[in-house]
Specification:
It is built from 24 helices and 26 strands. By secondary structure, it is of the alpha+beta class. The chain folds into five domains: about 60 residues, Helix Hairpins (Orthogonal Bundle), CATH 1.10.287; about 240 residues, 2-Layer Sandwich (D-amino Acid Aminotransferase, Chain A, domain 1); about 90 residues, Nucleic acid-binding proteins (OB fold (Dihydrolipoamide Acetyltransferase, E2P), Beta Barrel); about 150 residues, DNA polymerase, domain 1, CATH 1.10.150.20; about 70 residues, BRCT domain (Rossmann fold). The longest helix has 22 residues.
Length: about 675
Amino acid sequence: MAIPKKITHRVKKLRETIEYHRDLYHTKDAPKISDEAYDSLFRELEELEEEYPELKRNNTPTERVGGEPLKEFVKMTHVVRQWSYDDVFDSLSLKKWDEKVRNFIAKAGLSHEQVEYCCELKIDGLKIILTYEKGVLVRAATRGDGTVGEDVTQNVKTITSVPLILSQPVSLIAVGEAWIAHSELEKINTERVATGEPVYANTRNLAAGTLRQLDPKLVSKRNLKAFVYDIERYSGDMPETQSEELALLKRLGFEINPHVGVFDSLPGVEKYYQQWSKKKETLDYGLDGIVIKINARKIQEALGYTGKSPRWGVAYKFPAVQVTTVVEDIVFQIGRTGVITPVAHLRPVTVAGSTVSRATLHNEDEIKRLDVRIGDTVILQKAGDVIPDIVEVVTDLRTGKEKKFVWPKTVALCGGDGTIERVPGQAAWRCVNKNSFEQHKRKMYHFVSKHAFNIDKMGPKIIDVLLRENLITDFADIFTLKKGDLLQLPRFAEKSVDNILASVEKSRKVTLARFIIGLSILNVGEETAIDLAQHVGTIEKLKNITIEELERVEGVGPIVAQSVCDFFHDKNNLKIIHDLLKQVTIQASSFKIQASVIKGKTFVLTGTLQTMTRDEAKEKIRMLGGDISSSVSKETDYVVAGENPGSKKENAERLGVPVLGEDTFVKMVNSM
């Protein structure tokens, strides 16, 4: 069979591009793309040469590289709360962490002249907590939420690197990371493909999935391993340093990771980080960074903890994962307010353990900035838990057949004649027709969402079915559904139907703020809805409010005021509200603002809080007279940073906005 010309041309261009970037990296020390993007191109060439061996050449770049099953897991409360480390992603953030540490050391009256850093590899596995009594393993648990985990003792006993009896009859609680080798992943995935089972995306998923198997016999076949790195409770005398603690663990019979470094300066830490950032692929286990700890236990104890993490340690994460893939198409998605979002359909590719086939292109301006075209090879990046983003086009691989994307004048999904318009003062476009099915569907999704009516058992897939079967056409119809209506639908079992209807019933009582949020009023988000609810008190007053009065509401400007007035002057919208009020009750608000130093201050919340939900934190701030914002600016007074805070924390530090850890925030709101 003849090899398609486009394949031949792709292989040729890949070789040229790889060799070009190899030369930049090795000879000129001036790389233009990341190692990961380079590796992704390299892998594609390998795959094509394997599929079409006739195309392989002697000078190709690829030639350069020579018990009994359990019924369920029992929940258990940890004796010692399980903390997680704060993350840094660059040397500047690491330096800021070090400055904070040294300031704390100075306040504690300790000398910081001889501060040492113990650096360990951050294994990408699953945290396990091991409890020994008089030298015997009695319990093993997962981290869970940090306070409550699951008892996985029988499964952990199958891990040969975890001693069942220590070399000394001591009692202790040790912490480690269960992991599984890349080679084991390949073997297991090969077996699963043969039996038609879904494969595991990465070694971490496999380790987690294995440790939570109810049959220990299956676990024992999967060759789990573990590195132990910390002692949280100990019946003997604790070592004076982290490095000595690791030595003790080894003497007791634990396997510790051998690649530990102790340094007396940040340059030494940075060198260690860079070394393992490059060498991580040589190991048979996954790494996602390094962990840096103040070596001296005396200093660790003086520094203590924030609400979620130790002050004396930090995780220095490796650069964002990057891969290359091809843009196969660019399509539109219509939001509930009619805003049009371009979405790139990608050749499926695995990035950070997840298979990705789509990425948002945000708006017309972003497409122009990237100059992304259909058929382009692009660099896709994922940092932390952020949705993958197209960061660059590999223009060297263009063949001339790529199609430049032209922003259309009409979009069929908008319904009617499909006319679209650019939102004044913004990069966004929206549908002129406000009643398209696509937009209506998105409004229904939003209506049942967490921040609106919070009908938690009725997600988008169920909404799609109900709309398709004509069981609902508008918000009020959700509350008229009967059990018989749902049981006739395919794959709707009695228990799930009962759960849906119970969730619907629970949402019949709603606050005015949630009622307003659920209506999908243009330009009215969660905070504005709360401001409006506090100002007007009833939906009747809101229906009759004037633009002038709306503009006097704090947080409401002319654009929002006009949107609200337009909405309540629309007869269709008034009918929707009338029908909805026949089914639901708006609860009187018991919300009272208390006098406090927080009053008038603007807060931005980021990351996951451990002691309360995000909504609970917002309510506390509002009760004390504070305001909530979704983005950080110079007008922000405080950023509250929980676990995995992301870019908002970085923006705050760049703008000089105070960042509060969870413990400080909790003390602030509870002291009022």
